[in-house]
Amino acid sequence: MTAGRRELFAGLVRKYQDRIVGLCASILSDRSQAEDAAQEIFIKAFRALDEFRGGAAFATWLYRVASNHCLDLLRKKSRQKTDSLEMLAEREGERLEKLFAAPDPAGSLLEKSDLVERALSRLPPDYRLILTLRESQGLNYREIAQVLNCSVDAVKARLRRARKELEGNLRHFLDPENV
After folding, report:
1. Does pTM surpass 0.70?
2. Distance CA 103, CA 110 (A)
3. pLDDT score at 97
């Protein structure tokens, strides 16, 4: 491997690292796991660079590598037990109701962000992935279709279902007027 090729790839890592860590954090719901996963993803991408044919943008190919890796990690982790929405609502319900009933003081924005993150973490991984690609990463429907290897119509339908389920998750914590 030439030094020039390594330097070129290091530049790509610098360019995409924050985005890939953000995507991983959204899918895995754990920042430290996301950072570890991002390192593994860049190693995989570096080793598979010869397989990149340029049919799609490099970022799209990298998102596909990242999403597949994170979904594999979730499948391995799926045997671990998590709290149900009902248990979470029972444990945190009063605090969450108060948070959304009050005007938005400076500190509550972080708490709202935490709530959304927790509601997202209870979505199926494919819903978290598609919401993250669209809402957080800003990919358009065509780019998401390339990452997920599906049609644009399938992307639109999946996004609609994911948003509906996220809204349903948030309703466990809030009055319907606040969702």
Report:
1. no
2. 14
3. 57
